[in-house]
Structure formats: C-alpha cells, structure tokens
Amino acid sequence: MTFEMLSSPVAFLKHRLAEIQHDPVLREYEAWWEREGKVTSQATDRAGTPWLRMFDRFGKRLDEILFSAEYWKMLKRGYQAGVVWRAFEENSLLPSFLLGYVISFYDPGLYCPYTVSLSTAVPLEKYGPPELKGRFLPQLLRRDEDVWQGATWMTEAGGGSDLGTAVETVARPAGDRWLLTGEKYFASNVGAELAVVAARPEGAPRNVRGLALFLLPRRREDGSLNYFVRRIKDKIGTRSVPTGEVELRDSEAYLLGRPEWGVYLILEVLNLSRVANSVGSVALAQRAMAEALSFAEQRTAFGRPILEHPLLRKQFEERFAALKMGFALAWEAVQRLNEVWHETPPYPDRYHLFRLIAHLAKYWTAEMAAQTAKWAMEVHGGAGVVEEYGVERWLREAMILSIWEGTPHRQILDGLEAMERKGAHRLLFQHLAATAEPQALEEIASRVEDHLALPTEEKEAKAEEVFRDLAAFTAATLLRKAEGASCGPD
Ligand SMILES: Cc1cc2nc3c(=O)[nH]c(=O)nc-3n(C[C@H](O)[C@H](O)[C@H](O)COP(=O)(O)OP(=O)(O)OC[C@H]3O[C@@H](n4cnc5c(N)ncnc54)[C@H](O)[C@@H]3O)c2cc1C
Questions:
Q1: pLDDT in tens, 106-158
Q2: Residues near ligand 1 with C-beta < 6 Å?
Q3: Residue 347 DSSP label
Q4: Lower CB density within 10 Å: C or N end of the chain?
Q5: Count of C-beta atoms within a 10 Å radius of residue 404
Q6: What mean pLDDT is reported for the chain?
C-alpha cells in the first residue's frame, strides 16, 4: 500500500471520488496554499489571539479585529475561490465542501469563517423577505476584496447544549424590524458584517420552541455599530477565526422565517456547520497523517526507517483505512445535505436521514481527527511536543472540532432523538441495505431497536457504545460502496 496522496488534499479527493468538480480551481488553490497560505497560517497560529481595537483616538467605539495584512489576504483568497458564491451560482454545495477540504488541510480554523458565512447566506436566501435578500445577499456573494462575512451566534453564558433554557437574548418588535438585547458568549467570526442570531421574542415560552432566528447587521441603518465586542477569547487553536463575546443593546435585527419555525432554522444552520466540521476533521486527520508519514520515512531506528517496522507500518495502514471511512461518512453527509438544503419545515424523510448521518459524521470524524492528531505526535517522538515543528497544532485544532457545533454528547443525544421521533435509523438501514454486509446490518439494526426500547435514563446512559458502533458500521458500509464503485488503487 502506498500513502503518497496523503501530502496533497486534492490528490486525496481525487483518490476518493470518482470525479471532482473544478479540478483546476482546486489545484490552483492548493498550489497557492503551498506557495503563500501555509506560511501565513503558521504565523497566525503562532501569533495567538488577534488584538481588539475597541476605541479610536477620540474615544469613539470601533471594535476592530486586528490581524496581519497577510491574514486578510489568506481569508479573502478562499471567498474569491468560491467557498460561498459557488453554492448559489451552481445551486450545489459540493464545490464549497471540496474547497473546504483543501482549506482545512492547511488551516481547519480558517474553514470556520467560510462555514458561518455560508450558514448565514443559506437561511437568508431561503427565509429572508425579498427586500432583505436584495439588500444583504449580494454582499455575501461578492468575489472581490469587499466581500461581506457572516456569523452564527446562538451560545450564551448559560451554555450551548441547552439553548432552549440558556438563551436570554430578548427580541422586541419595532416596526419592520426587531430590537435585540442580550449577550452572545462564543461568537466566532466576530467582526462579521452580518450574523444570524438566536433570540426569544418577548413573551415567547422559555424553551427551545420559544426561540426565533434573526439576521443582525454589524451596522445600524444610520451607520453606527449595531453590536459590541467585549473581548476576544484566547483559544488553544482555531486562531484563524476570532471568537469573541458580543453585547447586543437594542440591536437592529430582522426575523428570518416564521417565529414558530425558529428552532428548525437554528438546527438547519447548525447542521450545515456540522457537515463542514466533518469535512474539516477528515482533512485535519489527513494532514496529521501526512506529517507523521514524512517523519516516519526519514527517521531511522534499529537500522531502517521507522515506517518499515511492522508495528508502525500496521498502524499507518489502520489509520489510513479509518481516514477513508471518515471521508466516506463525511462525504455522505455532504451529499445528503446537498439533496435537502432547500427543504423547509415540515421536512420529508430524506431530511431526517440527512440529520442522522450528519450527527454520526460530526461525532465520528471529530473523534478520529483527535485520535489521529495525538498519534501523529507520538510518531514524532519527542519532536512531536516541540512547538516549533507544528505537529502539536493538529491536536489543539482537533480538540476544538469535537466541541464546537455541539459536543459528542449532543451529537449522540440528538441522533437518538432523530431515531426515536422520526425513525431515522430505519431510513438509514434502508439506505445502506444494497451495500451493507447482511449479517452486520441485521445485528446493528436489532441492537439499535433494542436500545431505543430501554427506559429513558438507561437509554441515555448506555447510548455512546451503540452510537459509536452505528457510526463505524455506516462509515464501513459507505466505504465498501465507494471502493466497489470507482476509486484509484491504494
Ligand atoms: C472555539 C469555539 C468557538 C465557538 N463559536 C461559536 C459560535 O460562533 N456560535 C455559537 O453559537 N457557539 C459557538 N461555540 C460554542 C459551542 O457551540 C459550545 O461550546 C458547545 O455547544 C457546548 O456548549 P458549552 O460550551 O456551553 O457547554 P455546556 O453546554 O455547558 O456543556 C458542558 C458539558 O456538559 C455536557 N452536556 C450537556 N448536556 C448534556 C446531556 N444532556 N447529557 C450529557 N452531557 C451533557 C456537554 O456535552 C459538555 O461536555 C464555540 C465554541 C468554541 C470552543
């Protein structure tokens, strides 16, 4: 088995997919990363938290996020390549996720601004009234330096898992708009020109059904600041996206969709980001493996390169197999999302199937990324813990991928809910039936049914094992399907 393609995200994509759209665009983008982006990304990570300039010389509030000029160039390059605009021009999310794979191989944190911009543009396009769309959507789809960015702010200080209880931000109607007051505690891509924000219309119930989704511009109609950045969080990774705390003070916002649909719209936003997270996790795992490979080919111990020792060689083979499974699972989530991203509530079955696959993919690929990044450090021995060699970065980045967009607990419990309430597991088994190994399918299907019949407390307590096995089974079956079709030789 050869692992050659590990050093190039585009080569790996070609190895895994029968055909890829926009091959020249992807190759040109990868070449740019090798030439320029890589160095900027490393410098951004090493520089740590960007600086927040809160006031100008006269004491006027500015809330400007300060990165190096190279950072802004790196960021704009991805928008120009089409990570957002291509989705609308081509009516397909596939080019965006392909570009996202390349971005995440080099900088998983940088994929966040693009993801949240896409996750802002999609609900605006789907649910925004024509006047709002006409005013804001073209700004997000620009191909020049002046492109606007989006953001998705739900989490508050009380916690991100239980949004129904923790969201304190209140929305008051004010003519054709709403005024939002509250605080967002983990606000990535802070500084963005637009954000989609979860808030509770005055008097709405204090549960998840009482939440609505609003579009919130950075500036009010009179040009003044519409939200305020209290500080930027000092994170262990994903330093290519600024994550801040945001204060809303009678901030002007516009309702998206119907208020009673709020929870569905919020979940649509999160689910899109979860798919991107899965794609990013696989790309990160590939990057960590590529670095481990280049070290293991050159480092010698006991008279030969360490890669040639049977124990390490076997680990490479197993990791590579897991990488391919992860890709198959993440790409299935991409394809299912691409089928349903125009759906609105009430959703058809294929949406529930997508939801379950997205939870499985987010859960499984993030764990794989963290394990692979840890192992890549181990392969480097002592050099793995030395900051200047950069291998440790992939573990720092991977730990964030497993937490944001919902922790593993959230993926498991939301996945269970999709199975219990929508029968999503049966849709999944039907979907996989033609390719699955029959006995394995029967076995996992009956384990899942037995599990769902348990009393609630026990069902939650014992959920992880069955969910993990379901994810592994799904990934392995999808890999069988992909390999049965048309992949290059290993
Ligand atoms: C770098 C970074 C950037 C982020 N950017 C954004 C952003 O842009 N927008 C945004 O809205 N959010 C953002 N988040 C927030 C993120 O979505 C939350 O951190 C995440 O949803 C978890 O919420 P929490 O941190 O408040 O933890 P909590 O919700 O307080 O959870 C704490 C722990 O309890 C567990 N837990 C909770 N409920 C259960 C249960 N029923 N059963 C078992 N375990 C449970 C959780 O899984 C977790 O392990 C970001 C987070 C990070 C780390």
A1: 999 999 999 999 999 999 999 999 999 999 999 999 999 999 999 999 999 99
A2: 152-155, 159-161, 186-188, 235, 238, 243, 400, 403-404, 406-407, 409-410, 413
A3: P
A4: N
A5: 19
A6: 97
